[in-house]
Specification:
Elements: E1 2-3, E2 9-11, H1 14-37, H2 40-43, H3 60-75, H4 81-97, H5 124-142, H6 146-164, H7 178-189, H8 192-204, H9 239-256, H10 259-275, H11 307-323, H12 327-340, E3 359-360, H13 391-400, E4 407-409, E5 413-416, E6 422-426, E7 429-435, E8 442-449, E9 453-457, E10 465-467, E11 472-474, E12 477-481, E13 485-492, E14 496-499, E15 511-516, E16 519-524, H14 525-528, E17 536-537, E18 544-546, E19 554-562, E20 576-585, E21 597-598, E22 601-603
Parallel strand pairs: 5-9, 17-22
Antiparallel strand pairs: 1-4, 2-6, 3-21, 4-5, 6-7, 7-8, 8-13, 9-12, 10-13, 11-12, 14-15, 15-16, 15-22, 16-20, 16-21, 18-19, 19-20
C-alpha cells in the first residue's frame, strides 16, 4: 500500500483544522523564538569559541532540523516569505559551515573537531538523520534543492566512514533515526545505496553491542543492543530510540521483502500494544532511561510517556499499516494522536509536556521537607522550552503533516484510515470527507476513482455502525465496491465507555477509565474539588455531553466521594456522598492552572 502524501490533502474543518491553525499561527513562531533565545539557531553559524557560554549541545541540530521540517510542511498550505527567510537563514548556515566532506554538526565543528564519529552516545547520526528529513521535506514542498544536495554529500561521507572504510569509532547509531531518514533520502533520490546503508545499520544493530560506548548507568538493553533486530520479540530500552529504530526496520523490511525482519517488527508492535502501552497510547513507564520496563508495569503518577515516544509509536504503526492493511495499526495511530501526542502541547500552542502522566497530585509532590534531595515526579505545568527540547518541534512537524495518516491506496483499493474533514485530489483519486469526528461518529465520503473498492477502517472501539452501502469486512476494514461518483455515509455509534485494565496492571486495580470514541477522559481538581483520587464511579453511570472550550465535549455524570472524617483511621462503612463529576478530554489537562488530575477512577461496588 502507498500512503497519499499529506501535501496532496487539505484539512478543511473540524478538530484538526483548529489544531493546525494554532500550530501554524502560534506554535511555529513560539518554538522558533525559544530556540533563538537558547542559541540553537546561532549555533549553526559555528562561531562559538572556547571559554564562551552557551556551548552548542550535541543534540541542538536535531531540534532545529525538526523545526525546519515542520516549517516546510506549514508552507504547503500557507506560503509565507517570512517563514522561507528563516528556513533559508538556517539552511545557509548549515551549508556554509559543512566541512569538505559534507559533515555538519554544530557541536563537534567548534568543540572537538578530532572526535567526529568517535563517541556513539553523542547523537551525531541522530542529528544527521533529522537534517536529512528536513532537507527532504523542504525540497518536496518548495522544490529548493541546495539543502538536499548538501545532505547527499553528508550521507555519502557517512556511507564511506561507516560502511566502506569502517573507520568510525562505533558501528551503529547510539540513538537511531538516520535509518528511517536514509530511506526518505532513497525515496526522493532513487539512489539505492542510501537504502543499502539504512539496511547495513539495521543488519549490524545488536550484533556487536559496542559496550565500551555506553553511559556507565545503563546496559545493552538501553540501546536495543542485546540481540540482532531480527531476533527481537519485545520492546526494550529507551522508547524513542527503540521506536525510531523499528521505523527504520519496517522501511527496510518493506523495501527488501525481508520477512524475518517484518516478523520482528510485528512482535515488537504486538508486545507494546498488548502489554506495555498506556491507555492514552503513551509508552515508557519510567524516567530512568526514558524506557520500557516489563509487561504490565504501567504506573500512572510516575508515567514518563514521553511526547516524542507517542509520536514515534504513531510513525511506526503507520509504516506497519503500509505493509499490511490491518486496522490494529490504524487504531493505534488514532489512539496516540487524540491522546498521548496532543496532551504534549497546551491548547494555546505555546507550551509543552515532555512527560505525560496519567495522575497528578500537586499537594503531595514536594513531601521531602527535611532533605535537599526530592522525589522526582513529572512537572505539573507545560513549559515553552526545555534543556532537551526535542518534543516541541516534534509536535510542530507532526501536527503540520497529520493528514499523511488519512489515506492510502493499492492497485484495487482506496483506504480511509482516519476520519478528518478533508479533501484529496491526486492522480485518479478524488475524495471529499465531511465530518465532525471525533465530536460525533457521522462521516460522509464522496469518492471518484478508477479503483474497485474503497475501504473504511472500523475503529476497534466501535461496537455498532452503519454504512449506506453493501460491504464486506477484512482485517477491520469495510470494503465497499466503487461504481463511479460514489457518496457513502457512515455512522459510528459513539457511546461513553467504561474501560478496565488487565489485572496484571496493579496500578489500576479496582479502577476504571472513561472513553468516548478514541478519546480518553480524565477528572481534574479544578472541576471536582480536592482528593480526586478518592472519587468513585458506578460503571453504569449515565453521561451527559456538554460543549466546552477544549474542542471536544466534556462529560457530566454522578459519582461518589467518602464523607469528610477528621480521624486518620476509622471503621469502614458505606459512607459515600453523591457528587457531580466532570470529565474532560485527557489531552486538555493542565490548561487551567496547577490542579489534581486522574485518568483511572475508583469503581464503586
Amino acid at each position: 500500500m502507498q500512503n497519499i502524501k499529506f501535501s496532496h490533502i487539505e484539512i478543511t474543518g473540524g478538530y484538526w483544522k483548529s489544531r493546525q491553525k494554532i500550530n501554524s499561527n502560534i506554535t511555529l513562531e513560539s518554538v522558533y523564538e525559544r530556540f533563538k533565545e537558547t542559541y540553537r539557531f546561532d549555533a549553526l553559524k559555528c562561531e562559538w569559541k572556547d571559554g564562551e557560554s552557551n556551548v552548542p549541545d550535541i543534540f541542538w541540530d536535531s531540534d532545529v532540523a525538526k523545526w525546519i521540517e515542520g516549517a516546510a510542511y506549514i508552507l504547503n498550505s500557507k506560503y509565507d516569505e517570512t517563514i522561507v527567510e528563516k528556513i533559508e537563514d538556517a539552511v545557509g548556515s548549515i551549508i556554509k559551515n559543512s566541512d569538505d566532506n559534507g559533515y555538519f554538526n554544530s557541536h563537534f565543528l567548534v568543540t572537538e573537531q578530532d572526535m567526529k564519529f568517535r563517541n556513539r552516545d553523542c547523537h551525531e547520526l541522530y542529528c544527521a538523520g533529522h537534517l536529512f528529513e528536513a532537507a527532504v521535506a523542504y525540497y518536496e514542498i518548495t522544490g529548493k534543492d541546495a539543502f538536499l544536495k548538501a545532505m547527499y554529500k553528508y550521507a555519502d561521507y557517512i556511507e564511506r566512514v561507516f560502511k566502506i572504510e569502517k573507520s568510525a569509532g562505533f558501528i551503529t547509531p547510539g540513538h537511531p533515526e538516520i535509518e528511517l531518514a536514509l530511506m526518505r533520502l532513497y525515496k526522493v533520490t532513487g539512489e539505492k545505496r542510501y537504502a543499502d546503508l539504512a539496511k547495513y545499520f539495521i543488519d549490524e544493530h545488536g550484533k556487536q553491542p559496542d559496550l565500551d560506548t555506553y553511559y556507565n548507568w545503563v546496559n545493552e538493553y538501553y540501546n536495543q543492543d542485546e540481540m540482532p533486530i531480527r531476533d527481537r520479540k519485545t520492546a526494550e530500552g529507551h522508547c524513542v530510540r527503540a521506536l525510531y529504530l523499528m521505523c527504520g526496520a519496517a522501511d527496510v523490511a518493506e523495501e527488501y521483502g525481508d520477512e524475518k525482519l517484518l516478523k520482528a517488527c510485528e512482535c515488537f508492535f504486538d508486545n507494546i500494544i498488548n502489554k506495555r502501552m498506556y491507555i492514552t497510547g503513551g509508552v515508557g513507564s519510567t524516567n530512568i532511561g526514558e524506557a520500557f520496563t516489563v509487561d504490565y508495569d504501567l504506573p500512572n503518577r510516575t508515567a514518563y510517556a514521553e511526547t516524542c515516544a507517542a509520536i514515534a509509536l504513531a510513525m511506526f504503526a503507520n509504516r506497519m499499516l503500509k505493509i499490511c492493511a490491518d486496522s490494529k495499526y490504524a487504531d493505534i495511530i488514532e489512539k496516540t494522536i487524540y491522546n498521548g501526542v496532543v496532551s504534549g502541547v497546551s491548547l494555546d500552542g505555546k507550551s509543552f509536556f515532555y512527560e505525560n502522566p496519567l495522575e497528578i497530585d500537586p499537594e503531595f509532590n514536594n513531601v521531602n521537607t527535611s532533605t535537599k534531595q526530592k522525589k522526582r515526579l513529572p512537572i505539573t505545568q507545560r513549559l515553552e522550552v526545555f534543556d532537551c527540547s526535542c518534543c516541541p518541534p516534534n509536535i510542530l512537524r507532526f501536527i503540520a503533516s497529520i493528514a499523511g495518516f488519512l489515506y492510502g491506496f493499492d492497485d484495487e483499493t482506496v483506504y480511509v484510515h482516519q476520519y478528518m474533514d478533508s479533501k484529496v485530489n491526486v492522480d485518479d483519486i478524488k475524495i471529499t470527507q465531511k465530518t465532525e469526528y471525533p465530536a460525533n461518529g457521522k462521516i460522509n465520503v464522496k469518492c471518484e476513482s478508477d479503483k474497485k473498492y474503497i475501504a473504511f477502517r472500523i475503529p476497534g472501539w466501535c461496537k455498532a455502525f452503519t454504512i449506506n452501502r453493501e460491504y464486506t469486512m477484512k482485517n477491520g476494514y469495510a470494503y465497499v465496491r466503487l461504481d463511479g461518483n460514489d457518496e457513502i455515509e457512515i455512522n459510528f455509534d459513539m457511546p461513553v465507555r467504561v474501560i478496565a485494565a488487565n489485572r496484571r496492571v496493579h496500578a489500576n486495580a479496582g479502577r476504571v477509565a472513561v472513553m468516548r470514541g478514541p478519546v480518553v477522559y480524565c477528572a481534574e481538581g479544578v472541576d471536582n474539588g480536592a482528593d480526586v483520587k478518592s472519587i468513585a464511579m458506578d460503571i453504569n453511570s449515565k453521561f451527559e455531553l456538554k460543549e466546552s472550550e477544549f474542542l471536544l465535549p466534556i462529560l457530566k455524570t454522578t459519582a461518589y466521594r467518602p464523607k469528610k472524617n477528621d480521624s486518620l483511621y476509622y471503621e469502614a462503612g458505606d459512607d459515600y456522598e453523591e457528587i457531580p463529576l466532570t470529565l474532560i478530554p485527557y489531552y486538555a489537562f493542565a490548561n487551567r492552572g496547577e490542579t489534581e488530575m486522574q485518568v483511572w477512577i475508583l469503581k464503586k461496588h
